[in-house]
Design brief:
Largest sheet: 4 strands, parallel
Helix content: 40-55%
Number of helices: 13
Order of helices and strands: HEHEHEHEHHHHEHEHEHEHH
Strand content: 5-15%
Structural class: alpha/beta
Number of strands: 8
C-alpha cells in the first residue's frame, strides 16, 4: 500500500526533528528512552528490558489505529526524534520514518525488516486472490510487513535487538542477555507446539475470507492458503469472482472453517459460506495484533498469550 507524504507533513517532520535536537530534561538525563511503533515490538522489548536500570519504554501507536493507515502527528515525530532507541517494522507503512530521522544520528533506529534480511518475504498474490487496483497499475510488489506473526521471526529479532541494546547500553548487557535467553525458550516452546499441532492436523489448508497477514506463519508450518486480499490491502469489498472462487474451494476441500482477522465484520466470510455447499462451516477469527494496545498487554493479553490463542483457533480450522 503506497503512502503519499504531503508537503504539510514534510514540513512538520523537519520542524519536529529540529525540535528533537534540543536535548533531554534533567529528569530524563541518564535514562535510555526506547520507543516502538506497535504492540508486538513493545511487548518484546518489555520482556528484554525487564529489570534493566534507567530504561524507559513507550509505544507510539497506542490508540488501536491500524499500522497501514497511520499518519504521524508532529508530536509523534518529536517522540521519535527525541528517543534513544526507535524500534519499527520498516515496511512500506513506515516510509515516514526516513524523513523523521533524516540527519538525526543520535537515535539508534532498529528497522526489523532490515534485521530479517532475506528472511523478509514479498507479498504474493495466490490463485483466486483479488489484486489491488494500485498493484495492478504499477505491477510492483511490496514486502509483507507482518513479520511478528512468526514465532521464528520473533525469536530471531529479539536476539538481534538484544545485541544492539547491549552495545548501546552496556551497563545492562547482562540483564538483556539473560532476559533474551529466557524469552527465547518461551518462543521456541510455543513454536514447537505449533509444529506438533500442524503435523497431527487432518488438513493443511486455510481459507481467509479477508485480508491475509499470516504468510509468515503459514510458511513456517508449510500450510497452504487461499485468501480474498493480500495482508496490506485497503480493499473491503470482494468481487463476485473472488467470492465464488473461495466458496468453490471451501466446497471442494470440505474445510470445517473459514478464517477472518480481528476487526472483521465477517460479511465476506458469511457470503462465501452461503455461496458454498458447506453451510455449517464455522467462521473463526485469528488475531493479527495490528491494532493491539498497551492496555491489552498490561492486562495479560500479551504477544505469547495471543499467539497461544491463535494456535487454538488454528487447531479448529485444521481439524
Amino acid at each position: 500500500m503506497k503512502k503519499i507524504v504531503s508537503i504539510i507533513l514534510a514540513a512538520a517532520l523537519a520542524l519536529s526533528v529540529f525540535a528533537g535536537c534540543s536535548g533531554k530534561s534533567d529528569k530524563d538525563k541518564g535514562k535510555l528512552k526506547i520507543l516502538t511503533t506497535i504492540a508486538p515490538q513493545y511487548d518484546w522489548l518489555k520482556n528484554l528490558t525487564d529489570g534493566a536500570k534507567d530504561v524507559e519504554l513507550n509505544m507510539l501507536l497506542d490508540t488501536g489505529a491500524d499500522l497501514h493507515s497511520f499518519q504521524p502527528s508532529t508530536d509523534d515525530i518529536y517522540q521519535v526524534s527525541s528517543c534513544d532507541v526507535f524500534v519499527y517494522t520498516g515496511g512500506n507503512s513506515d516510509k515516514w520514518v526516513d524523513n523523521a530521522l533524516k540527519n538525526n544520528e543520535k537515535v539508534l533506529a532498529i528497522n526489523l525488516m532490515e534485521l530479517l534480511g532475506d528472511k523478509a518475504k514479498e507479498e504474493e498474490t495466490v490463485e483466486g486472490m483479488q489484486a489491488e487496483e494500485e498493484e495492478e497499475e504499477e505491477g510492483g510488489k511490496e514486502y509483507d510487513e507482518h513479520i511478528w506473526l512468526s514465532l521464528k521471526n520473533a525469536d530471531y529479532i529479539c536476539e538481534k535487538i538484544t545485541e544492539k541494546l547491549s552495545e548501546k547500553d552496556s551497563k545492562n548487557k547482562d540483564v538483556y542477555e539473560k532476559n533474551q535467553k529466557s524469552y527465547s525458550e518461551k518462543l521456541k516452546k510455543l513454536d514447537g507446539e505449533y509444529e506438533n499441532s500442524v503435523r497431527n492436523a487432518h488438513n493443511n489448508t486455510l481459507i481467509f475470507a479477508d485480508r491475509f497477514p499470516f504468510r509468515y506463519m503459514t510458511d513456517d508450518y508449510k500450510l497452504k492458503y487461499y485468501a480474498a486480499f493480500v495482508g496490506c490491502s485497503a480493499e473491503t469489498e470482494a468481487s463476485f469472482k473472488t467470492v465464488k472462487f473461495l466458496a468453490d474451494k471451501l466446497t471442494e476441500l470440505k474445510l470445517p472453517a473459514l478464517m477472518t482477522i480481528d476487526g472483521s465484520d465477517q460479511k465476506i466470510a458469511k457470503t462465501v459460506r452461503d455461496t458454498s455447499e458447506i453451510k455449517n462451516a464455522e467462521i473463526l477469527t485469528i488475531n493479527s495484533m495490528q491494532s493491539m494496545k498497551h492496555d491489552d498487554i498490561e492486562k495479560g493479553n500479551d504477544y505469547i498469550k495471543v499467539m497461544k490463542d491463535n494456535l487454538e483457533v488454528l487447531k479448529k480450522a485444521l481439524n
